From TrEMBL:
GO terms for molecular function: CDP-diacylglycerol-glycerol-3-phosphate 3-phosphatidyltransferase activity. Belongs to the CDP-alcohol phosphatidyltransferase class-I family. Pathway: Phospholipid metabolism; phosphatidylglycerol biosynthesis; phosphatidylglycerol from CDP-diacylglycerol: step 1/2; Lipid metabolism. It is an enzyme of class 2 (transferase). Gene3D superfamilies: 1.20.120.1760. Coiled coil: none annotated. Its main location: membrane. Its EC number is 2.7.8.5. The lineage of its organism: Bacteria, Bacillati, Bacillota, Bacilli, Bacillales. This is CDP-diacylglycerol--glycerol-3-phosphate 3-phosphatidyltransferase. GO terms for cellular component: plasma membrane.
């Protein structure tokens, strides 16, 4: 396994640590970042989420720089993103920080595109790498999640709703990129018998 794929696997390994810190009944007190007050566990989990998310850029950078792009990496990288983002979104719903209907739309798109990618891999014999619109979608989701995990940092829960605005932006790019992916690969449905 090459270095970029090892970094991707590290991202997957950080997911259960993030989840445990977010949902286990630890009481490490609270922290106040500007006007955003939150449990220390949310702050620590948010940092783990941000570090795990940053590995998405790192593995892609090294895969391209060292010419180590592989089909395994093309498969693992978006899967790791989807696992991390889905876990975070589900926790945000559980905590009441995000509306469930928005998260259902986002996660449904992820399942649908993953299914289409599997069909494309089976029928055309190659794993399709993520397009630019999909990468924008992922990063808007990561920003929204980070802001919500950090209790709408820097404005706090009663201030300007930056976290929710970021979530709406993420929802927009999620739906748009999903539509774009299906539209560009519509031949699968037209030519299927």
């Amino acid at each position: 396994m090459n270095l970029p794929n090892k970094i991707t696997v590290l991202r997957v390994c950080l997911i259960p640590i993030f989840v445990i810190i977010m949902v286990a009944p630890f009481d490490w007190g609270t922290i106040n970042l500007l006007s955003a007050e939150m449990p220390v566990t949310h702050f620590v989990a948010a940092l783990i989420f941000i570090v795990a998310s940053a590995t998405d850029w790192v593995d892609g950078h090294y895969a391209r720089k060292l010419n180590l792009v592989t089909n395994l990496g093309k498969f693992l990288d978006p899967l790791a993103d989807k696992l991390l983002v889905s876990a975070a979104f589900i926790i945000l719903v559980e905590l009441g920080f995000a509306p469930s209907w928005m998260i259902i739309v986002i996660i449904s798109r992820e399942f649908a595109v993953t299914g289409l990618r599997a069909i494309l891999a089976a029928s055309e014999g190659e794993v399709v790498a993520a397009a630019m619109l999909g990468k924008i979608k992922t990063w808007t989701q990561i920003v929204a999640i980070a802001l919500l995990l950090l209790h709408n940092f820097p404005f706090g829960e009663g201030g300007f709703p930056l976290g929710m605005i970021a979530l709406w932006v993420a929802l927009f790019f999620t739906v748009w990129s999903g539509w774009d992916y299906f539209y560009k690969n519509r031949h699968i449905f037209v030519n299927s018998k």
